[in-house]
Amino acid sequence: MKKRKYIFLTGGVVSSLGKGIACSSLGFLLQSRGYKVTILKLDPYINVDPGTMSPYQHGEVYVTDDGAETDLDLGHYERFLNVNMTRDNNATAGQIYYEVIQKERRGDYLGATVQVIPHVTDAINQKIINVGEKTDADIVIVEIGGTVGDIESLPFLEAIRQFRLNHPAGDTLVIHLTLVPFIAGANELKTKPTQHSVMRLREIGLQPDMLLCRTDRPLPENVKQKIGLFCNVSANEVIDALDVDLIYEVPLQYAEVKFDELVLSKLGLEKRKLDIEWWRKKIARYQKAKRTVKIAICGKYVTLHDAYKSIMAAFQHAGMENDVRVELKWINTEDLNEKNVEEKLGDVQGILVPGGFGERGIEGKLTAIKYAREKKIPFFGICLGLQCAVIEYARNVLGKKDANSTEFDPNTTNPVIHLMEKQKSIKGMGGTMRLGSYPAKLRKDTLAYKAYGVPEIAERHRHRYEFNNSYRLELEDAGMIISALSPDGDLVEMIELRDHPWFVGCQFHPELKSRVAKAHPLFREFVAAALKNDTR
Ligand code: GLN
Q1: What is the CATH number of domain 5-281?
Q2: CA 442 to ligand 1 center in whole angstroms
Q3: CB within 6 Å of ligand 1 — which residues?
Q4: What's the CATH architecture for 290-532?
Q5: In 59, 263, 402, 434, which residue has its Cα 20 to 30 A from 174's Cα atom?
Q6: Is 509 marked active-site?
Q7: Residue ranges of the domains in the chain?
Q8: Could you write out the DSSP letters of every residue in 271-313?
């Protein structure tokens, strides 16, 4: 059997230090040395998955090929590692408790008192073992959500303590990501928050092996010595995690300070050759790109960019392949109307309407789409964006003034978007949408076919509503092209417009499959079309 190694990454002091990016970057470096890496995110909240949470609470819900609704950090893992994650790569406290309680109800515990220790902690450790076995990884990186000191993450930290007890010393590693702030008034880097955070970890029996310190300047040797002394590690185990402009620089910075080399040596793994030149070149070239292109994102969660993480990433990847910096202009569609559309969208070269739920902001989205269609500005509609493009066309081209989705108006006489047949009997909310990867067939001589260059694709979905086939002919006659269909011909997966330079809508979420190694073809082509439109 393979000797598998486990790296646990905890976070201290404050949230938002970038644990997901730290895990992805370390994972990428280890992978680039020829190791097979997988990453597991453990989330301490009680929701079974983030699928039922508002984007304001949680940001984007990241959907995997196998249809799991997961934490957005899985997006970073996929984008950095260029490997598909599955439902095994994310577990929440809610999911773990749910499983334990179901087992208890079945009588599987044979009369035992069911407790956090050992039943919940065993279930947590089983998830860690499971993902390693299923992916046949050499190294499993486990990211613990939340911040050390939170009540809800205690069972996870306790599980790690037990996991370490049950594994040989060199097979596991705990890395604590912490913050070393520079206090301008004192002209000093402060180590106390790190000391306290590590103290909390040690109280519960976890001694970190390495400290990864977020800082805006390199840590001087005396600061490392001090942190080491108080936190019971040596100064060389205190690693700088410097602030960078672009998250894709993080692995380069880690390689610079030899973070991955120390990890390998502590795990007793051979220091194989590191091959990241292609990444370094790609990032450097992107940062030097002289041209910029401005794209408007017209949605309702625009104050919270976390809700559109994968879209933002997909634009960076598309920028890399077009040698251009993509500047995003965030438009809240609740404030967009016919009167101010020119003022708000007059300076952009492309318009994107992303996915979403509910009626708020819909009229503004329709205004943005009408503007893009009439002014021949490249337009990209994703999921709800496609649905709105169909509504707009039915209203303003076919003249069906009350055309709508039954999601927003159940009584419309022109339900051009309606509930999918299979959704009609569903009552529960969690995990019940059409989720995950489904194939679609592309029509020849379309923008879609030109972008993908293949006749059949598979893309990830997350929706309940669909294009109403009763309106297909009428819309096609009026200039709409159905460019992709489900293989049985039943579900409209993509649309475009005949008399427009680049107007594309898709029912799936292409942003979830864009990678640093390869931008998604639709984003790549959308950015290329926007570039052509730079006379604006
Ligand atoms: N609300 C729409 C639906 O359920 C669109 C979903 C989305 O954009 N992800 O079909």
Answers
A1: 3.40.50.300
A2: 21
A3: 355-357, 383-384, 407, 462-465
A4: 3-Layer(aba) Sandwich (3.40)
A5: 59
A6: yes
A7: 5-281, 290-532
A8: -PPP--HHHHHHHHHHHH--EEEEEEEEES-TT-GGGGHHHHH
